[in-house]
Design brief:
Largest sheet: 5 strands, antiparallel
Strand content: 15-25%
Number of helices: 17
Radius of gyration: 25 Å
Strand order of the largest sheet: 1-2-11-4-9
């Protein structure tokens, strides 16, 4: 993000060191440090109804609320209406009762949606209120991440808008850190503990004891939290940032998952009274090409100590039963990862195409394909948002086109850095984008294979005379944004992927990358093998 953008969005009245000292959060910040970064804190005033920031936009600052109340919310975009009924094969499928797929799965209304603020939202009501002492925009400030939600002033508001260098100085302040930790314990930790699947249904007094005994810890990005084979000393809940989970197999290390705010890890070794079964590392949001350079961020965790963990497991059999289910699932995934890990030696061409990443490749046999367009039409007809997940462009490998369709990568870098945690890997390894996606496009930019597409959607515009409170509570939007979509392999359809099912010539196929590459280890040279191919109708 260039300097011009930072200057353009950083408005308000610059505060002097003497003025900053009047705010208690700067009380123990040395005056020399305040003088070192002049103009990095500005006093901003907002009138009721004024938008402070919008979801999906770029951001470089954090906000500290001094006076007033704000509404913070994620607006769900109005889905585009289907533009057509699809191709012949898709229509025949509909006649026989083949359903269309929802754009994204439905969730329990109490499911937490993490945002960049001192509060969380719940799926059933993606709105909340911020007041004096609350902070929002921290991850935008520290990582140049897109804004995770829209914030609108409900009453006259006074805020401090803070640039990164000063915010990092504040984070080293005992007063500020203590204030933020206390707010987190009182406002967010309670919800995190109650909404962690493992702890659902725990009595209020147990949750309260856990809140008070939990340890708040932090790690620099790149730091190993624990290593595979280490002795367990607790379970962790992610408060801020991301954690990368990996395991070593013969042939190399395999990344198993990226965990984000609200996720837990480290429970298996405690439950089985053994050693750590995987390595967990504090990860960082990636630096997008062309954006400003920045130092690595920190990952903040809630550590539930071994004694507390054991006491809960002993007192609540339901919790232990859920732990057993979670542990078994994660251990099974590790076994499957060992089976699916691909050989490390491939031709240079295979590496250039990125085929070794694909656990499930979409390929089109160009010798069989007649360009009838049934695959693309079936994809559109199979989903209720009318958006195609099949982009028939990509590299050639032998006689096959490898379209820009999700490859279910071994290392899904698209999952890194989502500001609202709306992208995840399902149990069947498909990448799922939830319907609270704010359209920032970060996942699409990070996918190296152009498999995630950003689609402009129709929006409902509201007149200025209508209240912003109504906008926040109704979930309607106040500006045009996009939505990210990715191939889900039509998991819920009995026929499997609609594009493959609809192809009348068996040209479209889904293949296991390891088996496919094994059968085509030395393909005959092809004149098109060094360029991108497009079959766009």
């Amino acid at each position: 993000m260039g300097k011009a953008m930072i200057t353009a969005e950083f408005e308000g009245v610059a505060l002097t060191p003497e003025e900053l000292k009047r705010f208690d959060i700067f009380a123990d910040v040395q005056e020399a440090l305040l003088k070192k970064f002049p103009g990095t804190v500005r006093r901003r005033e907002f009138e009721p109804g004024e938008v402070v920031c919008r979801q999906g936009e770029g951001g470089t600052t954090a906000f500290y609320i001094v006076e007033g109340r704000c509404r913070i919310f994620i607006a769900r975009p109005e889905e585009e209406r289907r533009r057509g009924r699809g191709g012949l094969i898709a229509r025949i499928g509909a006649l026989f009762g083949q359903p269309r797929l929802a754009a994204s799965p439905k969730h329990d209304p109490d499911k937490l949606v993490p945002i960049d603020a001192t509060v969380d939202l719940v799926y059933g009501r993606l709105a909340s209120t911020l007041g004096p002492g609350d902070v929002f925009g921290e991850m935008s400030c520290l990582n140049y991440a897109p804004r995770s939600a829209t914030v609108v002033a409900e009453t006259p508001c006074v805020m401090l808008e803070i640039l990164r260098n000063m915010y990092e100085t504040l984070m080293r302040s005992k007063t500020f850190k203590s204030r933020m930790d206390e707010i987190y314990r009182q406002r967010a930790l309670d919800n995190h503990l109650k909404n962690v699947w493992l702890f659902e249904g725990l009595p209020r007094d147990t949750i309260e004891k856990l809140k008070q005994s939990a340890e708040l810890v932090s790690f620099d990005a790149g730091t190993t939290i624990f290593q595979e084979g280490d002795q367990a000393d607790g379970m962790y809940l992610i408060r801020r940032g991301q954690v990368r989970v990996s395991k070593t197999f013969p042939g190399g290390e395999r990344r198993l998952a990226y965990l984000t705010r609200g996720d837990c890890f480290g429970e298996i070794a405690l439950l089985r009274k053994g050693v750590r079964t995987a390595t967990c590392v504090a990860d960082d949001h990636p630096v997008i090409e062309g954006s400003a350079k920045r130092p690595p961020s920190r990952v903040e965790l809630v550590k539930i100590k071994t004694d507390d963990f054991n006491a809960i497991v002993a007192a609540f059999p339901d919790v232990r039963a859920r732990l057993e289910i979670l542990a078994e699932r994660r251990l099974t995934e590790q076994v499957e990862a060992r089976v699916m890990i691909t050989p490390t030696v491939h031709s240079r061409r295979v590496e250039e195409l990125g085929l070794i990443q694909g656990q499930n490749l979409m390929i089109i046999d160009l010798e069989k394909c007649t360009r009838c367009d049934q695959c693309a039409q079936a994809c559109v007809a199979a989903h209720d948002d009318g958006l195609s997940r099949l982009i028939r462009e990509g590299p050639r490998f032998d006689k096959y086109l490898v379209p820009a369709s999700c490859r279910m990568c071994l290392d899904p870098v698209c999952m890194i850095g989502c500001p609202v945690g709306s992208i995840r890997k399902a149990k069947d390894l498909n990448i799922v984008i939830e319907d609270w996606c704010v359209g920032c496009g970060k996942c699409a930019r990070q996918c190296p294979y152009n498999s995630i597409q950003m689609h402009p959607l129709e929006r409902i515009r509201k007149s200025d005379s209508e209240s912003t409170r109504t906008l926040a509570e109704s979930g309607e939007v106040i500006e045009v944004t996009d939505r990210a979509v990715v191939c889900d392999q039509c998991t819920d359809l009995p026929t499997g992927p609609a594009c493959v099912y609809a192809c009348p010539h068996d040209a479209a196929q889904r293949v296991n990358a390891r088996d496919f590459l094994g059968a085509h280890r030395h393909p005959a040279p092809h004149p098109s093998s060094i360029r991108e191919t497009s079959m766009r109708a």
